[in-house]
TrEMBL record:
Protein's recorded name: Uncharacterized protein
Organism: Candidatus Colwellbacteria bacterium RIFCSPLOWO2_02_FULL_45_11
Span of the signal peptide: 1-31
InterPro entries attached to this UniProt entry: AB_hydrolase_fold, LACT/PDAT_acylTrfase
Gene Ontology biological process: lipid metabolic process
NCBIfam families tied to this protein: rightmost
Alphabetical UniProt keywords: Signal
One GO MF term: O-acyltransferase activity
PANTHER family linked to this entry: LECITHIN-CHOLESTEROL ACYLTRANSFERASE-RELATED
Keyword Magnesium: no
Record carries keyword Ribosomal protein: no
Length: 1182
């Protein structure tokens, strides 16, 4: 078989800079060569000019040799150096184990580098593993000895290999190894020969550079490491799961190449590439691994000014450097941020460098040089430690360089721009003007010494970019969890500490963030909100890492425009755990600093999410807020968000997710948030409930209520949530929710049409459901648009909560607003909410799929490319499906995805039953719902799978009960609901028609009715004291006490209702017997003994003798029964106050002695074991 290998070396010398990412495959796989050779040996002879390394290959070889892999270090490359490899045969009967140089012994030779093809600077003096393909495969003959020879004329080589003096299969041929060995006697795989079947390898040469703004094509070169013909196809794109392999190239010889047009790779982000090898009949022989690379945009130079355009070259030169100078003039003002220029570096050597400078010209001098004391800014682009990529050597490349520190220009001072091309006297050519007098002041004209590519009319070779001066300061205020929290005691980061979060399944390190029950910091656990989180990176495994961009894009957006942190860009971190009101003083310090640095005394504020609530609270304290020029709020939960309810009640990741992976343990967030005012203040407020109609439906215990604010608060308190902090949150919102932001120019950026936005929680007897609502995935639209008539509003359909301050469109919008152009709206941004609620363009309708399971099972979803959504083996959640989200509430799991075709897998965690529901929404309106109810699973080995292609497709659920990967049962859905019934959220109604109290040993007819007005009844189950029954059944109640009838009903939409009906079984009390009078009129002599008697029977009239009966009595005064029970005297026949049973008379009897009682009226009370009691009054007289 032929093999195709795509190595992880990729380059792009183009406008969208490719900073090479970690390859997905870290090692190459070669044919097994253990039987060929694995040990090196070095020739004992050395000389100044050359050094040979030899490896005896053996004498029992027969497979052909196609290529050679070895690892060497070439020391001291010179103009006469070269690197060669040879295969030689050992003369018959000779013990010579090196190449003698005789023509008849050298079978194959290959020169890798020489003076006309010098070794790249980056490969010199370092160990490099190389694979060399022979021009012609070399057939080996068994019985002939062979030697591999690495030659290094003009220098010397070190080779990774064995220092064992007798390391060969034939010990008699062992030779002493001298010098240069970079291993030990246990390392014997330093280099080796590869033989056997043909293979193919595709290599993308490495190339990393500063961003460019002008280029032609991205050249991709392939090296075919086999003989023969065929075809190679290569594919590239930003979607790993949708690589279209095209760009087919015919292969006839060893090397071929293709070019990828620049316009194909201008989209920033992660790109993927893959190739495949085909034979002449286009059968795929092998597919390469996937490699990844990153495309980023060049610095944003929009709004900058061209202040000079002509170049000139210094008339003097030296052996080790060359200057290109440009006189900029003396009437300049403003700020120089960066430079764009186009050069060709002709001959890069080990000591070369490329740098640029801005300097002042010596007063009164015509010298066009930059001296150190006159240099204002400089930037080294390439140097000996950061080599220029090979692809940029000897070709024109346009570069844009942004200085670390901008230079302020002063009118009247003359300035120069210099390009330094050190390393050779004729190193650089520059695109520009050949006009010898091209400057404004002819007296300063200088002769041009050639190397120009332009002509007298081409004067745009390079130019200086200057930004507008007097920038209005901007304050950035992040949302919840957007500020780093460092431990005050030692300065160590506690939040987020993402690597620790990833490495820990339970995230217990976050326990330090918990507050006390008053919502204050605990002693010794104080935190410092040190900075805004720009980005976080976690190492997944080895060299593979993942980055999460938080506020980095927003910050860099301003920096790229010339803003400087703490000069005119201020970041306002805060402790998001605490009461927002307590953080306004900290924010006030940021405001004071920004106002003080403003040339006009005005500032701009960009506040995201919870940060907007902080700004609202702060500004409410001022009568005059004219110091705020523009206030931009983005994704602000002005009235709160139901997602906070989930965090406090069930746990949540609070949006802190990495691309493709959710690493934050939601249960830990639930634990630490219980006493955090900042989280409680994100709960929906009273105004939210008034506007939205409530966000909690409580269907438990037969209820059907949409809870109001106070009822929701009571629900939280009933679940042990902090009542004090609930009051703080209410007090925070109530004064402000009905008032607009206290600023003149408020711009509100709102995300919508995200189907994962929590709108309501539906709490049933045995599960929880979620109802989506329009929003940005976190903040509902109704909260974000509070009092929207007071603001200038922008709506971004499809934008996620963090995307509002991270994505290209909103960043462009923010720039337009602050630049005084709020009416210039980027594509994808709307100025009305029409596109959020009911888009006129029906192609814009967002179709969402919500898959949920209910019971202790794991839910997994895979798209057609194999991307996974659901829990992984590390205890985290994979979020690999584009646009997918995953939520867990107790044993309820939810996968929210773009509508499409998916494989749904339900993995049991134990024996029992589960429900599976699949809902389809069009712009959050239910379109269809498929339900599988009470699916049985035998054990934790059970797995159910469904290939879902829509509600009208094949809906067979394949159940593997025992985990043997074979389908044991095929299950059809209980119901497939259309748009008329898919929105049913009301569970069935259960009505009982039976007596609640019965005589023991009665027969009772079970009588209940179940109804559902919308989707219809799907499941009805009933049991009486644990035994299954149905309505109409007759049951015998054979013991006293409570007997429970439990009825569970589920409608076709999967809404469950469980209700209980309690039968209380009692004895049939026959009344008090003589001499007592039932109506209480009996009068008895004080001091006498009164027999108290009664009988108990069951429903059939049978006497009951086993009941317990106790007698108590209380004195009645003025018609009021006293509280004190009087102790009873006992007779020989009685024990305490317990009745005895007379089996002859079938009656209970107690002889009451009245000797210790007093004259008057008494209440006698009999308490029976069936929880009933009976009273009678008696009167005592002398």
């Amino acid at each position: 078989m032929k093999k195709l290998l795509l190595l992880g070396l990729l380059s792009l010398a183009v406008a969208a800079l490719l900073s090479v990412a970690i390859p997905l495959v870290s090692t190459s796989v070669y044919a097994d060569t253990s039987a060929i050779a694995s040990q090196p040996n070095k020739d004992v002879s050395t000389s100044v000019a050359s050094q040979d390394w030899h490896q005896y290959l053996g004498g029992n070889l027969s497979e052909p040799i196609n290529r050679i892999t070895f690892n060497s270090r070439f020391n001291g490359w010179e103009s006469n150096s070269s690197l060669q490899v040879r295969i030689c045969k050992i003369p018959d009967g000779s013990s010579i184990q090196y190449c003698t140089g005789n023509v008849d012994t050298v079978l194959s030779s290959k020169t890798l580098f020489n003076n006309s093809n010098p070794m790249p600077v980056g490969e010199r003096d370092v160990f490099v593993e190389r694979t060399v393909t022979l021009d012609t495969p070399l057939a080996l003959t068994s019985g002939t000895g062979y030697v591999l020879n690495v030659r290094c004329p003009g220098g010397s080589c070190d080779l990774r290999g064995s220092s064992d003096v007798n390391a060969y299969p034939d010990g008699s041929l062992g030779r002493k190894v001298t010098g240069g060995v970079a291993a030990d006697d246990t390392v014997k795989d330093a280099y080796f020969v590869i033989g056997g079947e043909d293979e193919i390898e595709i290599t993308f040469p490495q190339d990393s550079s500063e961003p460019n703004t002008n280029f032609s094509n991205w050249e991709v070169n392939y090296e075919l490491l086999t003989q023969g013909s065929g075809k190679v196809r290569v594919g590239y794109g930003t979607d790993l799961n949708a690589l279209s392999l095209s760009d087919e190239v015919d292969v006839a010889n060893n090397v071929f190449s293709t070019a990828v047009p620049r316009e194909n790779i201008l989209t920033p982000g992660t790109w993927f590439a893959q190739a495949e090898l085909l034979d002449d009949n286009e059968n795929i022989l092998e597919t390469s691994p996937v490699i990844s690379f990153t495309a980023i945009e060049p610095p944003d130079t929009s709004g900058m000014q061209v202040v000079a355009i002509q170049p000139s070259q210094d008339s003097g030169s030296a052996a080790t450097h060359q200057y290109w100078d440009q006189y900029l003039g003396n009437n300049l003002s403003g700020v120089v941020d960066g430079i764009t220029f186009n050069t060709k570096f002709n001959n890069w050597v080990s000591n070369s460098s490329l740098s640029v400078q801005i300097c002042e010209r010596y007063d009164g001098q015509s010298v066009f040089h930059c001296a150190a004391e006159k240099t204002l800014a400089s930037k080294v682009i390439y140097s000996s430690t950061n080599q220029m990529p090979l692809s940029e050597q000897g070709v024109f490349v346009e570069r844009t360089v942004v200085f670390d520190n901008p230079v302020t220009l002063n009118d009247g001072v003359e300035y120069l721009f210099v390009i330094r091309c050190n390393g050779n006297a004729s190193n650089c050519s520059i695109k520009g003007s050949s006009d010898a007098d091209s400057y404004g002041d002819g007296s300063l004209a200088m002769g041009v010494n050639g190397n120009f590519v332009g002509d007298s009319v081409v004067k745009d070779a390079f130019f200086i970019l200057g930004s507008e001066s007097d920038l209005t300061p901007v304050i950035i205020v992040p949302g919840i969890m957007g500020s780093r929290l460092n431990r005050v005691s030692d300065g160590e980061e506690v939040w987020p500490d993402a690597q620790t979060m990833f490495d820990s399944e339970s995230d217990e390190h976050l326990d330090e963030l918990a507050l006390n029950i008053s919502g204050k910091e605990r002693a010794g656990k104080e935190m410092d909100p040190e900075s805004i989180i720009d980005s976080e990176e976690i190492v997944i495994a080895g060299p593979i890492s993942v980055e999460r961009i938080a506020y980095g894009n927003l910050i860099n957006n301003f920096i790229d425009q010339g803003y400087e942190e703490d000069v005119n860009l201020f970041l306002a971190p805060y402790d998001w755990r605490l009461d927002i009101h307590d953080e306004i003083n900290r924010f006030g310090g940021n405001v004071s600093e920004a106002v003080a640095s403003s040339p006009t005394g005005k500032i701009n504020i960009v506040a995201h999410s919870m940060g907007g609530l902080l700004v609202r609270e702060y500004l409410s304290n001022f009568s005059d807020t004219s110091f705020v020029d523009k206030l931009i709020i983005a994704g602000v939960p002005q009235l709160g968000a139901p997602k906070a309810f989930k965090a406090i009640m069930y746990g949540d990741n609070m949006g802190f997710v990495f691309p493709g992976r959710d690493i934050l343990n939601p249960e830990r967030i639930q634990t630490i948030s219980q006493d955090m005012p900042g989280v409680y203040e994100l709960l929906p407020s009273r105004r939210y409930v008034q506007v939205n109609g409530g966000y909690v439906h409580d269907f438990r215990s037969g209820g059907s209520d949409i809870l109001d604010y106070d009822e929701t608060e009571q629900l939280l308190e009933d679940n042990a949530k902090n009542s004090t902090i609930l009051g703080i949150a209410d007090g925070f919102h109530s004064p402000l929710d009905g008032k607009s932001f206290n600023a003149q120019n408020v711009y509100n950026i709102i995300g919508c049409e995200r189907g994962e936005t929590f709108g309501a929680f539906r709490i049933y007897d045995d599960k929880v459901e979620i109802t989506p609502v329009d929003g940005d995935g976190t903040v509902p639209l109704t909260s974000a648009i509070n009092l929207s008539s007071e603001y200038t509003n922008y709506f971004i359909p499809g934008s996620k909560h963090m995307g509002i301050i991270r994505d290209e469109e909103p960043l462009e919008l923010i720039n337009n607003i602050l630049g005084g152009n709020p009416d210039i709206v980027p594509d994808g941004v709307e100025t009305t909410n029409q596109e959020c609620f009911n888009p006129e363009d029906q192609s814009r309708v967002v179709e969402t799929l919500q898959v949920s399971t209910h019971s202790p099972v794991e839910l997994h979803v895979y798209d057609m490319a194999g991307n996974h959504l659901g829990p992984n083996v590390d205890g985290d959640i994979d979020l690999q499906i584009p646009g997918g989200d995953y939520e867990t509430i107790g044993h309820n799991n939810f996968a929210i995805l773009p509508n499409g075709n998916y494989e749904i897998v339900v993995d049991a965690t134990g024996a029992g039953e589960f429900d599976l529901e699949i809902e389809t929404y069009a712009d959050l309106v239910p379109e269809s719902k498929v339900t599988y109810i009470d699916v049985p699973v035998e054990s934790d080995a059970s797995v159910a799978t469904l290939d879902f292609s829509g509600a009208t497709g094949d809906l067979t659920l394949n159940l593997d009960s025992d985990g043997d990967e074979n389908t044991d049962e095929q299950i059809q859905p209980n119901a497939v609901l259309d748009s008329e019934t898919a929105g049913d959220i009301i569970p069935p109604e259960i009505v009982f028609d039976m007596p609640s109290e019965v005589i023991v040993n009665s027969q009772v007819v079970i009588d209940f009715a179940v109804t559902d007005d919308l989707s219809g009844i799907e499941v009805v189950e009933a049991d009486f004291d644990g035994t299954p029954v149905d309505t109409g059944d007759v049951v015998q109640i054979s013991s006293i006490g409570d007997h429970i009838l439990t009825v569970r009903a589920v409608d076709s939409a999967g809404n469950p209702r469980t209700e209980e009906f309690v039968f209380h079984a009692i004895y049939n009390f026959g009344g008090f017997m003589s001499p007592l009078i039932q109506d209480g009129s009996g009068i008895y002599k004080l001091g006498s003994t009164i027999p108290i008697k009664f009988q108990l029977v069951d429903a059939n009239g049978g006497h009951i003798s086993t009941a317990s009966a106790l007698l108590t009595m209380k004195k009645i005064s003025s018609g009021i029964v006293g509280d004190e029970e009087v102790p009873l005297s006992t007779s020989a026949a009685d024990t305490g106050n317990i009745f005895r049973y007379d089996y002859v008379a079938n009656q209970y009897i107690y002889n009451l002695s009245t000797k210790t009682m007093s004259i008057g009226t008494w209440q006698l009370k009999i308490a029976l074991g069936d929880t009933t009691s009976y009273e009678v009054e008696i009167s005592l007289k002398k």
